[in-house]
Amino acid sequence: MSRQTTSGDEEPEQPQNGDYHVDDQIGLLIRRAHQRASAIFAQHFSHSGLSPLQFTALIKIRDEGRVSQNQLGRLVFVDPSTIMGVVARLHDRGFIRRLPDPRDKRRMLLTITSTGLKLAEDLECVGHEVTRATLAPLTMSERAQLHDLLSKLN
Questions:
Q1: Residue 94 has pLDDT above 60, yes or no
Q2: DSSP summary character for residue 123
């Protein structure tokens, strides 16, 4: 099996026909890492009933104070129809409320409720534990490097 790795800023060799190995492709490796992170999240958050995206949205709403649904979708990198469902579920459970935007009557602003704030505060340390467990196989230096590289890709 030939790998397309190089050191430094060298360009990798041009791949040859028959030299494509799925297990070496970055998309598959990222997908497997995502599956690992998702499984660890599910283990730690099963009692909360929140999905990773719902937890992320709840924390973003808390951090932003007030945010439109459209802006929230952009902040958590999801499309409008997906964020609509996430917001509906958080609202139905009493974790957020919708308020009319005083500057634009057509728009609603999302804000966290006291119930949502308590939940976010209770789960924040669990979120840190998910990150620690996900990155457990890596050294501290490798964790920082992975973070920097993924940030660079995004």
A1: yes
A2: H
